[in-house]
């Protein structure tokens, strides 16, 4: 509940209002696929989720402030015709 009521800025409000407008228009026009887009936009703004700054944050596992990288092994595929 705290994430919904705090941290509002101009772009979050704009995203919420745009999502709400799209949702209302989709109900009026009975375009349900457009309604999903409206729910998505309004939900992103309401719950402070998205792929903006730290929205899709990938946590790096670290031990004692040392970042551990795993070696990626690639296998070459040979397609002969």
Overview of this protein structure:
The radius of gyration is 21 Å and the shape is flat. The chain has one domain (2-67). The protein has helices at residues 2-5, 10-29, 32-46, and strands at residues 62-63, 66-67. A two-stranded antiparallel ribbon has the order 1-2. The termini are far apart. Strand 1 (62-63) and strand 2 (66-67) form a beta hairpin. The longest helix has 20 residues, at 10-29. The chain has three helices and two strands, in the order αααββ. The protein is mainly alpha-helical and 81 residues long.
Average of pLDDT: 79
Portion in helices: 40-55%
Beta fraction of the residues?
Answer: under 5%
Instruction: Give the class from helix and strand content and strand pairing.
Output: mainly alpha
Radius of gyration over alpha carbons? 21 Å
**Spatial order of the strands in the main sheet?**
1-2
* Stretches with pLDDT under 50, minimum 5 residues: none
The total beta strand count reads: 2
The helix tally amounts to 3
Number of domains: 1
**End-to-end span in angstroms?**
60 Å
Order of helices and strands: HHHEE
Overall geometry: flat
């Amino acid at each position: 509940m705290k994430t919904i009521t705090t941290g509002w800025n101009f772009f979050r409000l704009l995203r919420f209002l745009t999502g709400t407008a799209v949702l209302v228009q989709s109900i009026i026009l009975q375009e349900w696929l457009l309604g999903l887009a409206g729910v998505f936009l309004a939900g992103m703004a309401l719950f402070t989720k998205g792929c903006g700054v730290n929205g899709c944050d990938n946590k790096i596992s670290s031990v004692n402030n040392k970042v551990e990288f795993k070696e990626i092994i690639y296998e070459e595929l040979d397609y002969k015709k």
